[in-house]
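re: that chain from earlier
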Amino acid sequence: MSPDEVSGALAAPTDDPLADLSVGECPLDEGSDARPEAAPAATGPADTEGAPAVGAPPPIPPVVDVDDLDWDRIVAALSPDALRGRMRETVERLEARLDAEGRLRMLFDDRRANATDRALQLGPLSDEPLWFIGDLHGDLLALESALALIARETERAEAADARIVLLGDLFDDGGYGLETVLRVFELVLGRPGAICLLAGNHDEALGHDGARFTTTVSPSHFSEFLNAHLADEWIVRAGKLAIRIVADAPRALFFPDGLLAVHGGFPLSDLHARLAATQDWNDPQCLVDFVWSRAHPRARRKLPNRAARGSQFGYEDFAAFCALSATLGRPVTHMVRGHDHVDDRYEIYPAYAATPVLTTVALSRRLGRELFGPYGRVPTLARWVRGALPQVHRLHVPERLIRAWYPEDVDDRESDAAAGQGGT
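^ sequence. v structure.
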């Protein structure tokens, strides 16, 4: 990521996961293909809700490949025009709920320590299905495919309605940014107590200065689209509503079995002494790290670079945080996150074996800023498994459908700014 400030002026970071590699990196086995020794296991009290014994890393369930959904039916039900057609009703209803209740009571809101709590410590949880959906960046096709799988698996389990945690980054990078936001609004209105939105860096970066929409990230397609439609009252109100909801959204969820759910990462090493002294999980810099920090797949340690929000961490950094968290009454043993657009759309880093980390993103296409690899990708989501790393499910959406909705020969950066959506 580019620094936030260049010569005293605020710059829009590129959100490029490779841009920060040379900053503050410890020269420990870097550039070697050898697998580093796993970090030491975190110490601290064992969790009472299914966490493994102290010293034993949480198990990693097998990956599930999903290729038997009715893909054509999912696509036939997709209707960006219908979402826009319902936009006024959706926005009015959600605004009314927020205005009437002060805060819409979404999933886990009852676990907030106070109204300003953004780092939620969760109490005992039921075994009803709970799923994590990572970065969408306007991928309406991947979102609807994930929802179809969740609905099918919930029915098969004869369970109550599933709970869903969105790991952030709903828009930017072309695609159907507005429609994805509207679809999430509809999910919240339909089952607010079953939907939790964690703020991603693109979500958090969106603002409004009283006249125009602003952002501190690049690519910034959604803010460009909103500013191109300032004459449309309902598009503007939808954008402002997204800002309002994200401002109140959690930045981190601490599960009782040792799982940490975030968009980016955790308070980095230079904050550990302060955190130990204050135990203030809502320290502004801690909240920044929950949203913006990135995982290095192999490095042992990374020196935080406070000239940029997107500092990286290594496997010993996470192990140290796990050890600290146990002493502060929030033991962390494993983590699920989004943020990094890994090629396979999920990654379980071998170097983090003692304190496992899962990155999962729901992107069915290669983004414009991804230079290599196939155009059609396999979006993923993950199911919470008590005491284990969440179980990855890979959605094998046929490439013909991906290309029909996101043609490779269309420049998303131009089409999104001009029309607010990808091609069909």
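Residues 39-419 form a domain with the Purple Acid Phosphatase; chain A, domain 2 fold (CATH 3.60.21.10).
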